[in-house]
Amino acid sequence: MNETASLNPEEIHEEVYAMGRQARTAAHALANLHADQKNVILRAMAGELRVQSRQILAANARDLEEGGKNGLTGAMLDRLRLDESRLESVAGGVEQVAELSDPVGEILDERERPNGIRIQQIRVPIGVIGIIYESRPNVTSDAAVLCLKSGNATILRGGSEAIHSNRAIAAALQEGGEKKGLPPHSIQLIPFADRESVKEMASMDRYLDLIIPRGGKGLIETVVSLARMPVIKHYDGICHVFIDEAADLKMGRRIALDAKTQKPSVCNALETLLVHEAVAEKFLPAVAEDLEARKVELRGCPQVQAILGGRVAAADEEDWDTEYLDYILAVKVVDSVADAVTHINRHGSQHTDCIVTSDEENAERFLREVDSACVFHNVSTRFSDGEEFGFGAEIGISTDKLHARGPMALRELTSYQYRVRGAGQVKDPLP
Amino acid sequence: MNETASLNPEEIHEEVYAMGRQARTAAHALANLHADQKNVILRAMAGELRVQSRQILAANARDLEEGGKNGLTGAMLDRLRLDESRLESVAGGVEQVAELSDPVGEILDERERPNGIRIQQIRVPIGVIGIIYESRPNVTSDAAVLCLKSGNATILRGGSEAIHSNRAIAAALQEGGEKKGLPPHSIQLIPFADRESVKEMASMDRYLDLIIPRGGKGLIETVVSLARMPVIKHYDGICHVFIDEAADLKMGRRIALDAKTQKPSVCNALETLLVHEAVAEKFLPAVAEDLEARKVELRGCPQVQAILGGRVAAADEEDWDTEYLDYILAVKVVDSVADAVTHINRHGSQHTDCIVTSDEENAERFLREVDSACVFHNVSTRFSDGEEFGFGAEIGISTDKLHARGPMALRELTSYQYRVRGAGQVKDPLP
Fold first, then answer.
1. Which residue in B225, B426, B430 has the most chain A C-beta atoms within 10 A of its own C-beta, making it the best mutation to test that interface?
2. Is the domain defined by B239-383 classed in CATH 1.10.472.10?
3. What ipTM is given for this predicted complex?
């Protein structure tokens, strides 16, 4: 980037911290916008994305050209690419967020104490949220508008390969919004994409209340090790389906096949299939046939190999801890619900795990004992998703346990405040 | 400590990580205990504290003796000291926690989707919580039993000066509990107190879901800079009272005096008094008289000095950012509610701030715009407390915005899980 090539670490520090201060001011203004005002602003942003589509696509073309020169793979270039239709779906996404109900102002708890003070716990925005992400330029808009709808200011830091696209999208959002009263600096994009800016963001706990990294494990690990403020992590999904001895085996086949093959590249796809030994001989050949018809490679424990023979490779210890995101499935025979639970709690990633069974007691035990964000009974793991849960758009699926767990949508982008009203109550009545 | 003087960093690592693994196993067992079982365990713990009081007080005497030799101040020795009556209040505190209602299992949200899947959001324990604290040995019991009541395992790491007391208390809790079915390793105390053990805990995000540091700013800063897992911070309280132009001035005097002097050493005590210029000439001499009668030193802005004359020292910029925890009060004249809000949002610590006014509109504006965990209208800041709020015992007052904000009690020691029940739903019906 010619514009910033000359910045030294000291200058980057100054610039990022100045953005932090401005974001804090914007956040105080945003917290007091009414839902209607925010929705008018969001619709204006969607409109401006359409008005500026030529500029945005031109900026994207520049990123693609530089990416080609820099040796990005075809898959990387595809993630980076925008066209009229993808940009329209970004703009449509903004309009959808305007339709969602505003979580801010919801009263979570209300109580009056014997001394007459009235305590109200009310939902408020978090403040300033940092989003650190990789190549997809649509994240610039998706993340910023979810934060805005929930009353938060954002500081965005996208990948260097998408810098021109991200700048163009952020400019359109800010310009469109400001025409309708968006406070300045509500949405800021760090205009350079070296690692120094991540370090500065991670140190800025005075101005950033939360960082959400969106990307691969390496990115998340880096942010976690640097950040002084809370980080909500969206780690991998090593999801399990357990076919219980009391399972409807037809349903088990349907769920396993759907969870593995309907979209293997996503975090809620199936990675390890567990089968109760009492039904293994009957179930495994049938499900193997379904899966093989869809070109899924199976890797099994010795018992699975004994039943299915040479068509199954041996799974090693590492397979139980792997998120393939591909047409590969680890398969293991277990001897009880307890054994399945133990395997999942040891090897899973606390994302989404399912039991298929007709036995209510086994189902409830599994739901209670599996320590994952989402536990399913007789439902494909692919339903672990904010939209499927009815939350509207989501910013990700948290594998953390604090603040937000599982699908993270508007509600999870808020905090709360206690408002206490009285009539002059004091602890010690004065003499 | 003779027992551990020979441990090298590698051995400390092994030992702390072994405790982490054991705590994870204990947490899975604890998550499934019924409220009644936990209460029986808690009462047995209280009993055992009483049964073992001789040993606990002897251990405490050893800490006090070593502390005396190591030059601890009188105040430090007093914080460290246990006697029959203090120990009885620790045991009584455990029984009180048994009386509180169990947050685990509460259904937070329930919904059925058009496709028939039923989604339940249910409160579950967090898992394993690390508590890192300083000299008061009662924290060993207070923190462990709040965590236990909410279904969590704890790893405790107290200050070196209280190590014998802490060991004796933790042993009594564990022994008393295990007689009634407490899973082993539910409450573990790190048996040595060097800094290496804090580093190991902070790195152990696989086994520790949360760290809560309880102590001074230095301790919290250290934990924040090292921790890979979420940390909930209880930083200082730079609390404000703002006397509006429409205040009942008698009420204002009463609240200011109570907030400053009823117990100056705590985080919800008043540190800066803001007075609207329209009432400053009338209010300041009166409140100064009250405060001076209680030996409070005033430090004022130039306008305050002009009104009160030589009895008031000049406040400098640092005074607005200081938590005195002492009989000192900073006083400033402001020209509007907006001016008060700006001062508080810039200099406060987002803990607890109060407006005294009879004007509803000013009150609501203040409550809405002050970005603090607790905002009060006509109530002394000293009521910012879990027990005063009706939550029962609290583990602290969080100055964070994520997960827990303000008084942090049992509810805030839990997470949630989505339990989803269906009838074989898949995303793509198979061909």
1. B426
2. no
3. 0.93
